[in-house]
Structures are given as structure tokens and as C-alpha cells.
Amino acid sequence: MARTRNSKSSSFISLNPSFFIHLFSLPPFNSLHNYSPRKNSRITQTSPFLSFCFISLLITLTFFAILLITFTTFFQNPLLCTGTSSSSSPLFLASAFAVASSRSGSVQDEQITLSTGAMMPLPAHGVVGNFSEEEEEFWKQPDNQGYMPCLDFSLKYRKASAKISKEKRKFLVVVASGGLNQQRNQIVDAVVIARILEATLVVPVLQVNHIWGDDSEFSDIFDVEHFKKTLKADVRIVASLPSTHFVSKQTINRDLPFHVSPLWLRARFLKQLNQEGLLILKGLDSKLSKNLPPDLQKLKCKVAFHALRFATPIRELGYQIARRMWIEGPYVAIHLRLEKDVWIRTGCLTGLGRQYDSIISRERDSHPEYLTGKLNMTHSQRRLAGMCPLNASEMARFLKGLGAPISARIYVAGGEPFGGTQAMQPLKNEFPNLLTKHTLARNGELTPYLEKSSTLAAIDYIVSLSSDVFINSHGGNMGRALEGHRAYVGHRKYIKPNKRMMLPFFEDSSVSEQEFKRIMKKLHRKSQGQPEPRAKKIDRDVIAYPVPECMCKQ
Distance between CA atoms of 324 and 25, rounded to whole angstroms? Predict the structure, then answer.
């Protein structure tokens, strides 16, 4: 975080010496100052004793007052930057949910800071209760190695902010497409591009989602005022384009290459922006380089984990549903990716039989452009290469291999699976406590949002963020977003199935169940949400791997 000169003043109380001089000038303490042996013997015997008692009492009260104010200050700042070690435990970060997430009022009357703006999960459950050794290992959280959020922007960045945050002549308009988490990625990049071009950002336009028919606007999903205020020191953000910049015909730039750098953006658009005062960009998904200067990487984290907070109605409902899972004890959240469009795009078999596979094949043949990856691979080759989502049967065996208790409560995130209840039955047979947002909602809570896929995805995101264990069956934007967010709030357990390595053992009938468990645990021992520096694979997004640019050791 950017630290101001008085940032440490909130961590302790300094008392001016004149305070004590004035204090001892007041009765009854001046009796000690004025005490003389020549005075009346009665006063001589009693005044020092009484004064000593009052002084002792005052010092004690002052000490406890300082402690009270200090602890109050700490608990009001759950996500402090480096230099404040008292908030370094993940449990402390998680407990800040009560402060950071349950505020349902408007942000109009409160100052938005990094310490209060982050969307926090419910606290992780400790491993307490009648668990076997294997079950304890499954629920145990990874070691965060002391990493904490650390958005300390450079002096050069902060100096430039004075001008950039007041820009009123150049405007950037961005149209974000895709599902919720794809749109979130583009909004993050939009803020960074506005900063690079030193332009005012108009609140991004969300393109109507033709696949799911969702016409939600930015303000329907995200807290606009929080978004603007959180980033006011970085980029000026306005709700709409000024009438002075309306033109009858404006070029929409939609053909950006992949991995564009700040230098490329300035060379390509700065002249146009200075001349016309307006730039419209569309199709930003994965176009901005993953390898940006440190300050811009920190800005991406600030947008993703602090500024993009869901709108109050979504946040409240999401946490209500999360609490219904959380109150019963630890739970797992899984993102299965069994929707119809996923099967079409991946070129994989559903595992539901010929009838369902033929439906997918016909639609895939009529829309070959939907197919992703290599076209010359068979279904089996795709699966063994890790290109297919785990189906319900495979997920059930994977969970058992990791040591998940049969009684585990499992939250299933995602859209309606292709094949309906039949698709989920193998998982339910092994783990009967299977729940979704629909089964947890009460009294028509979800009714207003049944046609709003982005809102439903946001609820899934909140419940998954608060889970003790999260398992993603097939990559995707939501999985990457949660991987980074769970790391940022204390490295909550996050398991990525190593499908390429583990699936051959699913086929080998000679492997005993005990040996299968040993193999699954060994394969995933080092991929359970521990701090993993982005630098190991330089093309990784800082939003998925916030160490070390956005997190540092205390």
C-alpha cells in the first residue's frame, strides 16, 4: 500500500510531556509538588499518601486507556501494510470480515482505505473436533510463510498521481465482454491502461452476454462509489462521458495484439488520445502484458482485491449463504465446470453416455470455432493431456484420494450442469452433503437473480472465497481469480488437480485404494495454496499469483 508520512501514527499514541506538567499542576497532585516538612503535621502525614494513591490510580487508568485505543486501532485496520506485525496472522485477516465485509451501508460517509476496502472471507475453521489424522490433514491450512499484502507504491508513482488523478481532458471508455470473472479481468486492465495513458476512466460498459442473456450493468454487480473512491489516488473515474466528448462517429479499437506493453500502448494511442480526447477499447481479455512495472502490478492487485467489491445486495446475500455453510463447520467448495458450453469448447466426452455425447458432438460440429486447443487430438488424448474438466465421478474419487471425510459438506459452484441431477449423482453418492446456492437460499432470495448469471456467479465467488478448501476442476477465470484472492487474504487452501499426472492412475485397476490415496496426496502436497512466487513462470498473472509484487514477508 502507499504509505503516507503519518501512516504509523495510528499504531500508537504519543503524549506530549506538557500533558504531565499540566496534570501535576492540578489538585490533588499539586500537594506533592508543594509539600514541605514545615507544614501542619496532619497534612504532612496524609497528603503524600493520598497523592500517591491518586497518582498510582491515574497511571493505571492511563495505561489501560492506551492499550484500549491501540487495540481498537489495530482491529479497525485488518489489512495493514508492512511494518505492522500484529495483523500478520491469517486468522486475524479472516476475522476482519466482520468489519470489512458486513458493512451494508453506503460508502458516501466513510473514507475508503486499503485497510477497510478488501473483500474478506469468513474465518477459516481450526482443526478442532473428532477428526481422524487423515481428515485433520485434509482440513489443515497451508503455511503462509509470513506473507502479507504490501502495496507500497514508489515515490515516483505517488508524485505522478497528483496530475493523473485530476485529468479532465482525456477519457478512456472500455467495453468488457464475457462472463463475470472475464469482465473483472478486463476492468482491472482498463484501470491500468487508463493509468498508463494518463486518462480519466469512464466506468466500464458491460456488454450484454449473449450466451447467458445477462444485460447487467456495472452498477448492478459492483459497488460503483467504492470503486471510484478506492482508486481516486490512482486514476480519475467518472460515471459517464461528458457531453463535450460525444461525437457522431467514433472508432472502436478492438484488434489489440496479445501481451501489449505500456510502451506499445503509449506509441499506439497517446497521439489519438491527445488530439481527440477520447479512446474506446473493446476486447481487452488477456491483451495487456503480464509483465508490468512493479507499481502497475500493485495497481492490478489494488483493483482486483480492493476496488472491485460486489454491490451491497449481492454482497449481503452472498455472505448470508456463505454463513449457512460456515456455521455447520469446515466445508469444501468445488467448481466443477460441467456446463454445456464447457463440453462443447473442450472437445471432451461428458461421461454421461452416448445420448448426451451425441448432443455435444452435433453442436460442436455446427460451431467448430468454439473448439479450443488442438484439433487433431482424440477425446482420450485430450483427457489424458489434462484438457478436460473432471466429471462428478472423477471428482468424487479425487476427494476420497485426498482424504476428505465422507461427511464433508461440499458447496458446488457453477452453472446448471449438462445432464442435470444425473450428472451430479456419482458425487452425491459418495458425498451426500452436497449443496448449491439454490439449495441454501431461502424464501425466494435468488428469485430476482435467476436470469442474472453474473449475480449468481458473484454469489458463488463469495461462498467459495470463504470455504476452508477450494478445488477447481478445470482452470478458467473464476479459478484463477479465487487462487489469487485466497492467497491475498492469508493463503487459504486451494487445490489444483494435476490431471495430467493423476488420470493414468484412475484407469489402472491394479492400484489399490490405499496406494491410490498415497499417490494423490504425494502429487498434490506442494499445490495446496502455499505462497508461490509469480516469477517462477513469468507469464503468470499477478492477480492469480500476488507474491512477490503485491505481498511481502513481515
Answer: 59
